[in-house]
Amino acid sequence: MVKVLSVGGSIVVPDAPDTAFLKAFSQMVREWLAVDETRKLILVVGGGSPARVYQNAYKTITGEVAYNNNEADWIGIMATRLNAQLLRATFADICPQEVVTNPTTVTEFTGRILVAAGWKPGFSTDTDAIYLAEQFGAKTVVNLSNIEKVYTDDPRKNPDAKPLDSISWADFRKMVGDEWVPGKNCPFDPIASKKASENSISVICAGGKDIKNIRTILDDGDFFGTKIG
Protein backbone atom coordinates (compact mmCIF):
# COMPACT_ATOMS: atom_id res chain seq x y z
CA MET A 1 0.00 0.00 0.00
CA VAL A 2 1.51 3.30 -1.15
CA LYS A 3 0.48 6.73 0.11
CA VAL A 4 1.71 10.08 -1.17
CA LEU A 5 2.39 13.21 0.87
CA SER A 6 3.16 16.48 -0.89
CA VAL A 7 5.00 18.34 1.87
CA GLY A 8 5.13 22.10 1.43
CA GLY A 9 8.61 23.54 1.69
CA SER A 10 7.33 26.14 4.14
CA ILE A 11 6.61 23.26 6.54
CA VAL A 12 10.11 21.79 6.29
CA VAL A 13 12.02 25.09 6.00
CA PRO A 14 9.85 28.06 7.07
CA ASP A 15 12.96 30.24 7.62
CA ALA A 16 15.51 27.64 8.61
CA PRO A 17 15.04 23.85 8.76
CA ASP A 18 12.41 23.11 11.41
CA THR A 19 14.29 20.40 13.26
CA ALA A 20 11.66 19.99 15.99
CA PHE A 21 8.98 19.34 13.37
CA LEU A 22 11.19 17.00 11.37
CA LYS A 23 11.97 14.92 14.47
CA ALA A 24 8.28 14.63 15.37
CA PHE A 25 7.30 13.94 11.75
CA SER A 26 9.98 11.27 11.39
CA GLN A 27 8.84 9.52 14.56
CA MET A 28 5.18 9.56 13.46
CA VAL A 29 6.00 8.21 10.00
CA ARG A 30 8.16 5.42 11.41
CA GLU A 31 5.41 4.43 13.85
CA TRP A 32 2.85 4.38 11.03
CA LEU A 33 5.08 2.24 8.81
CA ALA A 34 5.79 -0.18 11.67
CA VAL A 35 2.11 -1.15 11.92
CA ASP A 36 2.16 -3.00 8.58
CA GLU A 37 5.25 -4.05 6.62
CA THR A 38 3.39 -3.53 3.32
CA ARG A 39 3.01 0.21 3.97
CA LYS A 40 5.11 2.59 1.87
CA LEU A 41 5.20 6.37 1.75
CA ILE A 42 6.20 8.80 -0.98
CA LEU A 43 7.27 12.25 0.24
CA VAL A 44 7.43 15.05 -2.34
CA VAL A 45 9.05 18.19 -0.95
CA GLY A 46 8.61 21.84 -1.90
CA GLY A 47 11.09 24.72 -1.92
CA GLY A 48 10.05 26.73 1.14
CA SER A 49 12.08 29.69 2.35
CA PRO A 50 15.21 28.96 0.25
CA ALA A 51 13.12 29.12 -2.93
CA ARG A 52 11.51 32.44 -1.96
CA VAL A 53 14.79 34.01 -0.80
CA TYR A 54 16.70 33.10 -3.96
CA GLN A 55 13.83 33.88 -6.35
CA ASN A 56 13.44 37.31 -4.72
CA ALA A 57 17.19 37.85 -4.99
CA TYR A 58 17.03 36.99 -8.69
CA LYS A 59 14.19 39.47 -9.23
CA THR A 60 16.10 42.20 -7.36
CA ILE A 61 19.25 41.61 -9.39
CA THR A 62 17.64 41.47 -12.82
CA GLY A 63 14.67 43.78 -12.36
CA GLU A 64 11.13 43.25 -13.67
CA VAL A 65 12.08 43.63 -17.35
CA ALA A 66 14.76 40.91 -17.40
CA TYR A 67 12.95 38.59 -14.95
CA ASN A 68 12.27 35.21 -16.53
CA ASN A 69 9.74 32.72 -15.12
CA ASN A 70 11.71 29.77 -16.44
CA GLU A 71 14.87 30.85 -14.61
CA ALA A 72 12.89 31.54 -11.43
CA ASP A 73 11.37 28.07 -11.64
CA TRP A 74 14.82 26.47 -11.88
CA ILE A 75 15.91 28.37 -8.77
CA GLY A 76 12.86 27.04 -6.94
CA ILE A 77 13.51 23.51 -8.22
CA MET A 78 17.05 23.57 -6.83
CA ALA A 79 15.65 24.62 -3.46
CA THR A 80 13.27 21.64 -3.48
CA ARG A 81 16.19 19.33 -4.13
CA LEU A 82 18.13 20.67 -1.15
CA ASN A 83 15.08 20.20 1.11
CA ALA A 84 14.44 16.74 -0.31
CA GLN A 85 18.04 15.70 0.35
CA LEU A 86 17.60 16.71 4.00
CA LEU A 87 14.41 14.66 4.24
CA ARG A 88 15.97 11.67 2.51
CA ALA A 89 18.92 11.78 4.92
CA THR A 90 16.45 11.82 7.81
CA PHE A 91 15.00 8.53 6.54
CA ALA A 92 18.25 7.13 5.07
CA ASP A 93 17.90 3.75 6.78
CA ILE A 94 14.54 3.07 5.09
CA CYS A 95 15.01 5.17 1.94
CA PRO A 96 17.77 3.47 -0.10
CA GLN A 97 16.90 5.23 -3.38
CA GLU A 98 18.27 8.60 -4.36
CA VAL A 99 16.01 11.66 -4.43
CA VAL A 100 13.66 11.43 -7.41
CA THR A 101 14.00 14.40 -9.77
CA ASN A 102 11.99 12.99 -12.68
CA PRO A 103 8.75 11.29 -11.61
CA THR A 104 8.16 9.82 -15.07
CA THR A 105 11.24 7.57 -14.97
CA VAL A 106 10.74 5.88 -11.58
CA THR A 107 9.62 2.29 -11.96
CA GLU A 108 10.83 0.78 -8.67
CA PHE A 109 10.13 1.52 -5.01
CA THR A 110 12.62 -0.62 -3.10
CA GLY A 111 12.47 0.86 0.41
CA ARG A 112 9.71 1.99 2.73
CA ILE A 113 10.14 5.69 1.92
CA LEU A 114 10.69 7.40 -1.43
CA VAL A 115 11.60 11.10 -1.49
CA ALA A 116 11.06 13.31 -4.54
CA ALA A 117 11.85 16.92 -5.42
CA GLY A 118 11.15 19.35 -8.25
CA TRP A 119 11.48 18.13 -11.84
CA LYS A 120 11.33 20.90 -14.45
CA PRO A 121 9.84 24.39 -15.00
CA GLY A 122 6.13 24.81 -15.61
CA PHE A 123 4.60 23.50 -12.40
CA SER A 124 5.28 22.86 -8.73
CA THR A 125 6.10 19.71 -6.78
CA ASP A 126 2.33 19.18 -6.42
CA THR A 127 2.35 17.98 -10.02
CA ASP A 128 5.29 15.67 -9.34
CA ALA A 129 3.22 14.16 -6.51
CA ILE A 130 0.34 13.46 -8.91
CA TYR A 131 2.70 11.79 -11.40
CA LEU A 132 4.04 9.53 -8.64
CA ALA A 133 0.57 8.76 -7.32
CA GLU A 134 -0.43 7.67 -10.83
CA GLN A 135 2.74 5.61 -11.24
CA PHE A 136 2.34 3.69 -7.97
CA GLY A 137 -1.45 3.40 -7.83
CA ALA A 138 -2.29 5.88 -5.08
CA LYS A 139 -5.78 7.35 -5.51
CA THR A 140 -5.26 10.18 -3.02
CA VAL A 141 -2.47 12.73 -2.52
CA VAL A 142 -2.22 14.46 0.85
CA ASN A 143 -1.10 18.07 0.41
CA LEU A 144 0.49 19.46 3.58
CA SER A 145 1.04 23.20 3.76
CA ASN A 146 0.37 26.24 5.95
CA ILE A 147 -3.21 26.21 4.61
CA GLU A 148 -5.37 24.02 6.88
CA LYS A 149 -8.47 24.15 4.67
CA VAL A 150 -9.51 25.37 1.26
CA TYR A 151 -11.70 28.49 1.48
CA THR A 152 -14.32 29.87 -0.87
CA ASP A 153 -11.97 32.86 -1.36
CA ASP A 154 -8.67 34.15 0.01
CA PRO A 155 -9.46 34.67 3.74
CA ARG A 156 -6.64 37.22 4.02
CA LYS A 157 -8.44 39.46 1.55
CA ASN A 158 -12.08 38.49 2.05
CA PRO A 159 -13.37 38.24 5.65
CA ASP A 160 -16.50 36.50 4.36
CA ALA A 161 -14.51 33.56 2.90
CA LYS A 162 -15.75 30.24 4.27
CA PRO A 163 -13.73 27.05 4.91
CA LEU A 164 -14.76 23.96 2.96
CA ASP A 165 -14.81 20.31 4.01
CA SER A 166 -14.96 19.19 0.38
CA ILE A 167 -15.06 20.64 -3.12
CA SER A 168 -15.24 19.17 -6.63
CA TRP A 169 -12.33 19.48 -9.04
CA ALA A 170 -14.49 21.56 -11.39
CA ASP A 171 -15.24 24.15 -8.70
CA PHE A 172 -11.70 24.13 -7.34
CA ARG A 173 -10.17 24.68 -10.76
CA LYS A 174 -12.45 27.68 -11.30
CA MET A 175 -10.86 29.17 -8.18
CA VAL A 176 -7.18 28.54 -8.96
CA GLY A 177 -7.23 28.88 -12.75
CA ASP A 178 -5.05 27.00 -15.24
CA GLU A 179 -1.78 28.92 -15.13
CA TRP A 180 1.32 28.23 -13.03
CA VAL A 181 3.56 31.12 -11.96
CA PRO A 182 6.72 30.44 -9.89
CA GLY A 183 6.00 31.14 -6.23
CA LYS A 184 2.23 31.10 -6.80
CA ASN A 185 0.44 30.77 -3.45
CA CYS A 186 -2.65 28.57 -3.78
CA PRO A 187 -3.87 25.42 -2.01
CA PHE A 188 -2.85 23.18 -4.93
CA ASP A 189 -0.96 23.90 -8.15
CA PRO A 190 -3.32 24.53 -11.14
CA ILE A 191 -1.35 22.17 -13.41
CA ALA A 192 -1.43 19.44 -10.76
CA SER A 193 -5.15 20.04 -10.29
CA LYS A 194 -5.84 19.51 -13.97
CA LYS A 195 -3.83 16.27 -14.06
CA ALA A 196 -5.41 14.98 -10.83
CA SER A 197 -8.89 15.74 -12.17
CA GLU A 198 -8.18 13.92 -15.45
CA ASN A 199 -6.85 10.85 -13.58
CA SER A 200 -9.57 10.72 -10.88
CA ILE A 201 -7.03 11.32 -8.09
CA SER A 202 -8.36 13.05 -4.98
CA VAL A 203 -6.35 15.53 -2.92
CA ILE A 204 -6.61 16.22 0.80
CA CYS A 205 -5.40 19.67 1.81
CA ALA A 206 -4.41 19.91 5.47
CA GLY A 207 -2.15 21.81 7.85
CA GLY A 208 1.39 20.49 7.71
CA LYS A 209 2.33 21.14 11.32
CA ASP A 210 -0.46 19.07 12.90
CA ILE A 211 1.33 15.74 13.34
CA LYS A 212 -1.66 14.06 15.00
CA ASN A 213 -3.97 15.09 12.15
CA ILE A 214 -1.49 13.83 9.54
CA ARG A 215 -1.44 10.44 11.27
CA THR A 216 -5.25 10.44 11.25
CA ILE A 217 -5.22 11.08 7.49
CA LEU A 218 -2.74 8.25 6.92
CA ASP A 219 -5.01 5.99 8.97
CA ASP A 220 -8.04 7.00 6.85
CA GLY A 221 -9.74 8.55 9.89
CA ASP A 222 -11.86 11.68 10.32
CA PHE A 223 -9.41 14.50 9.65
CA PHE A 224 -9.37 18.31 9.71
CA GLY A 225 -8.90 19.61 6.19
CA THR A 226 -10.52 19.74 2.75
CA LYS A 227 -10.98 16.90 0.27
CA ILE A 228 -10.83 17.89 -3.40
CA GLY A 229 -12.23 15.43 -5.92
Overview in brief:
The protein is α/β, with parallel strands linked by helices. The chain has helices at residues 9-12, 19-34, 48-66, 69-90, 125-136, 169-176, 190-198, 211-218; strands at residues 2-7, 40-45, 113-116, 140-145, 150-151, 163-164, 166-167, 202-207, 226-228.
Write up what this structure looks like.
- This protein has 229 residues and is an alpha/beta fold.
- The chain has one domain: Carbamate kinase, CATH 3.40.1160.10.
- It contains eight helices and nine strands.
- It has helices at 9-12, 19-34, 48-66, 69-90, 125-136, 169-176, 190-198, 211-218; strands spanning 2-7, 40-45, 113-116, 140-145, 150-151, 163-164, 166-167, 202-207, 226-228.
- It has a seven-stranded mixed beta sheet with strand order 3-2-1-4-8-9-7, with helices on both faces. Strands 5-6 form a two-stranded antiparallel sheet.
- Helix 6 (169-176) runs antiparallel to helix 7 (190-198).
- The longest helix has 22 residues, at 69-90.
- The two termini are 21 Å apart.
- The mean pLDDT is 92.
